[in-house]
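*** Fold description ***
***
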Amino acid sequence: MAIAAGIRQQIAGSSLIRKMFEEGERLKAIHGPDKVYDFSLGNPMNEPPLEFQRRLQQLAVSPEPGMHRYMSNAGYLETRKAVAAVLSELSGEVVGAEHVIMTVGASGAMNVALKTILDPGDEVIILAPFFVEYKFYVANHGGKITVVETGPDFQPDLQLLAAAMTPRTRAIIINSPNNPTGVVYGADVLERLNQLVEERSRQYGRAVYVISDEPYARIAFDGHPVPPVFRHIRNSIVATSHSKDLALPGERIGYLAANPKIGEVDLLVEGFTLCNRTLGFVNAPALMQRLVAGLQRETVDIAEYQRKRDLFYTGLTAAGYQLVKPQGAFYLFPQSLLADDMAFVEKAQEFNILVVPGQAFGRAGYFRIAFCVELELIERALPVFAELARACR
C-alpha cells in the first residue's frame, strides 16, 4: 500500500467537498463560468480592508531592519500584545501577551492545541454539523472523536453532551458563528457548558477544555452579539484566523490564546509554543504578523455579507426551502428537498448549481451554501434554485 491506511480513509472522508469543487470546474469548462452557480467553497471574494493595503505598502517602501529574521516561536511580542489587548476588551479578563501565540491560521492553532493536550486515546467531542477537518486534526494527535448531535435549531444539547462525556474526554470543540449553519451560541449556552465542564473536570481529576474555533467571530448580523468565550468558560482556548474577518485566507495568519484563568496556564502556553515548533509551523509568517498587529479592530464590510444573507434567505424561503436564518458567518444550511441529500446535490448539478451535501458535515438531510460570492451571482442563481425546487417537488 502506497500510503497509510488512516490517510487513505481520511482521503475518502474528505472527498465530498473536493468532489463538488472539481465538478464545478468541469461544468464551467463546458457551459462557461457565467452559467454555473458555484456555492461550494467558503473562499471569501471580499478584498482586505484598505488599512491592510496601506500598511503593506508602507512596509514595502520602508522596510524595518531585520523584519524577515527568525523570531520567538510564540510570535512577535508587539503582535501578541495587540491581540491580547482586544481579547481583554471583549472578555473583561486580563489577557496578556504571554497567553497568546501567533499561528499559521486557525487550523495550525487547533493542531497545536490538540497536540499539547491530548494523550493517545483521549476523546474530543465535536458537535454535528461540524467542519469536516476537525476529525482529521484530532486523528493527527492520537485522539478519538465523539460526535454529539445538536438540536433542530443547531444549538448544543447539553444533556446529550453530558451523556457523551467519559473520563477520557479531554476537549469539546465549539464553533460559533458556526460553519455550516451560521448559528451563534448564546451566553446562556456557554454558561451551562462551563458548569458541565467544571463539574466533569473535578470528577475526572484533570482539565476538560473547550476549544473555541472562531474565524467567523466578527462576522455577525442584525447586531447579534457573539459572546466572548473567555468571559463565560474558564477552561477555554481560542483558535482563530484572519482568513474571514480580514479576507486573508491565503496568508494563513491566526493565533491561539489560553484563558488566563486556566489552572497551570503558563505550562499550557509553554506547551503550545513547543508544539508550534515541533509540528513544523515554527512560527507564523513574519510579514503577516507585522501587518495584523495594527488591524485587530478592523474587519471587512459585514453589511455586505448581511445583504447577501438577506437576499439568499428571502429568495430561498420564498421558493419553499426550509432553513434556520444564519446569525453570522457566510453559510446557509437548508433542508434537502429530497430525502437523500447526496441525491439532491446531484439533482442540483443538473441545473449547474454547486452545493455541498450535509453528510459532509455530519448532518444528513441538509446541504450547505457558501454565500461569500459576488452579489450578482446570487441574483442570477435564485431563479434557478426556484426551478430546482419545482423539479424536486
